[in-house]
Specification:
Number of domains: 2
Number of strands: 11
CATH class of the largest domain: Alpha Beta
CATH superfamily of the largest domain: Glycogen Phosphorylase B
Helix content: 40-55%
Number of helices: 13
CATH architecture of the largest domain: 3-Layer(aba) Sandwich
């Protein structure tokens, strides 16, 4: 296979190119083929095939913003009600008819695979939908923007009623994987919490004060594409996930007590797996805000729009802005 053929397979908008890309992703990313693939394998292969057709525009958009040193909107929100990504990205790439025909020629039902996608559990109500609409509009208008938020592992929550009482259950939206997010573990940022301050004298004899945090959490960025409507612009939504800087106590683990070994993981105590615990959620917002500010490109003029700044950002973060 030549390099030209490979490029067309990754980005081509013909039915044949889409079919080749789908089968390649099924084999090389899912490790299976049409004979043995599960429905989840088929959905993920389809999602990666659609994502491939937006990645080049995504990279081109990032380069264009960096090279022109344009002013960028940095949009911070605790929630983003994005909706399902498959059909939205197909619409943005004008690829829905191609995808349907390609799958039909492979003997697969597009609608059946589409219905397997879980809606990202990243927001609810007016605030989350408003934030997502703003990002979509900014991309469609071709305006440079980056969204920042929190990657809730178990979503907002599923609501049901038992004996007349509301019952919340975790929303396991990541159960089938997340083909739309690109993790960047090498860009993890340490965020400190709690602790105390102490005074000391520096090498010049001046009195100084330093902060000794009680614990730190690693904020790991996951990037998602936000494509404009058929205009070649693909902006970025960066969602922060948290993990402990020290996963567990090895000495306690070797003694056979795994539960105690992981009990004091900072990420379990301060960073919510879902968005319901109020105090933990505030700390998660602080973690996401601090991480976002630390990785904002210094070379780009920054225009920051904050949603509910009194609760989303701590006072120290606001002063940094």
């Amino acid at each position: 296979m030549t390099a030209d053929t490979e490029v067309r397979t990754r980005t081509g908008m013909t039915v044949d190119a889409f079919k080749r890309a789908f089968l390649d992703n099924l084999a090389y990313l899912q490790g299976t083929d049409l004979t043995f693939a599960s429905r989840t394998d088929l959905y993920l292969a389809l999602a990666y095939t659609v994502r491939d057709r937006l990645v080049r525009s995504w990279l081109d958009t990032i380069h264009a913003y960096a090279e022109t040193r344009t002013k960028v909107v940095y949009y911070l929100s605790a929630e983003y009600l994005l909706g399902r990504q498959l059909e939205n990205n197909l619409l943005a790439a004008a690829a829905t008819p191609v995808a349907r025909q390609a799958l039909a020629e492979l003997g697969l039902d597009f609608d059946e695979l589409r219905d397997l996608e879980a809606e990202p559990g990243l927001g609810n109500g007016g605030l989350g939908r408003l934030a997502a609409c703003f990002l979509d509009s900014l991309a469609t208008l071709g305006m440079p923007a980056v969204g920042y938020g929190i990657r809730y592992e178990y979503g907002i929550f599923k609501q049901s009623f038992q004996d007349g009482w509301q019952v919340e259950q975790p929303d396991e939206w990541l159960m089938r994987g997340d083909p739309w997010s690109v993790p960047h573990h090498a860009m993890a940022v340490k965020v400190a919490f709690g602790g105390r301050t102490e005074g000391y004298t520096d090498e010049n004899g001046s009195y100084r004060v330093r902060w000794l945090p009680a614990y730190t959490v690693l904020g790991v960025p996951y990037n998602m594409m936000v494509p404009g409507y058929q205009n070649g612009t693909v902006n970025t939504l960066r969602l922060w996930s948290a993990r402990a800087s020290e996963e567990f106590n090895l000495a306690v683990f070797n003694a056979g007590d795994y539960i105690s070994a992981v009990h004091d993981k900072p990420s379990l105590r301060i960073f919510p797996r879902c968005s319901t615990p109020r105090i933990a959620r505030r700390k998660a917002r602080s973690c996401a805000s601090s991480s976002s500010i630390s990785l904002s490109p210094a070379r780009s003029p920054m225009c920051c729009v904050c949603i509910r700044p009194a609760t989303m950002l701590g006072s120290s973060c606001l002063s940094a802005l």
